[in-house]
């Protein structure tokens, strides 16, 4: 849903020309898809570590191996996302690059706010003013 929001607002939010939009759209989709896939793989590795600890089956060797995998994913994530952003930046002006980054931060902040409100509703807390 977040990806769809970004894509649907991309041209207007960044002030892209039609030509830029055609070039930027697949790059943004790749960036978002790679970010999601790599984050999920990292979460899975951390879930497996957590389960090993909770079940009492964690061994030094097993934890070290899983931790190596998680660290490798973190390195891959950084490299992949940088490569994707560099490709997108090649289509955008510096102002548009900055607008894209600001837009991403604003969306992340909005998601955190929505999640906090949902947690409050589940607990029965009154909504903030």
Overview of the structural elements:
- By secondary structure, the chain is an all-alpha fold.
- It has a single domain (2-92), classed as Helix Hairpins (Orthogonal Bundle), CATH 1.10.287.
- The chain has 4 helices and no strands.
- It has helices at residues 2-14, 18-55, 60-89, 94-123.
- α1 (2-14) packs antiparallel against α2 (18-55), α1 (2-14) packs antiparallel against α4 (94-123) and α2 runs antiparallel to α3.
- Cα radius of gyration in angstroms: 19 Å
The strand count comes to 0
> Main β-sheet: number of strands, strand sense, barrel status?
none
Cα shape: flat
CATH fold-level label: Helix Hairpins
Per CATH, the class reads Mainly Alpha
Mean pLDDT: 92
Q: SS-based structural class?
A: mainly alpha
Query: How much helix, percentage-wise, in residues?
Result: over 70%
Strand content: under 5%
Parts with pLDDT < 50 across at least 5 consecutive residues: none
Distance between the termini: 27 Å
Count of spatially separate domains: 1
Number of helices: 4
CATH architecture: Orthogonal Bundle
* H-E order: HHHH
Any chance you could write out the topology, listing elements then pairs?
Layout lengths: L1 H13 L3 H38 L4 H30 L4 H30 L6
In short:
The protein has 129 residues and is an all-alpha fold.
């Amino acid at each position: 849903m977040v990806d769809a929001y970004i894509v649907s607002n991309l041209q207007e939010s960044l002030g892209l020309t039609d030509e830029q939009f055609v070039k930027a759209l697949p790059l943004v989709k790749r960036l978002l898809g790679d970010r999601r896939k790599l984050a999920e793989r990292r979460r899975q590795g951390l879930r497996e570590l957590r389960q090993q600890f909770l079940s009492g089956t964690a061994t030094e060797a097993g934890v070290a191996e899983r931790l190596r995998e998680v660290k490798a994913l973190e390195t891959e994530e950084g490299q992949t996302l940088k490569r994707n952003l560099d490709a997108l930046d090649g289509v955008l002006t510096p102002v548009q690059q900055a607008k894209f980054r600001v837009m991403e931060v604003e969306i992340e902040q909005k998601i955190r706010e929505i999640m906090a409100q949902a947690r409050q509703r589940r607990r029965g807390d009154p909504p903030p003013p």
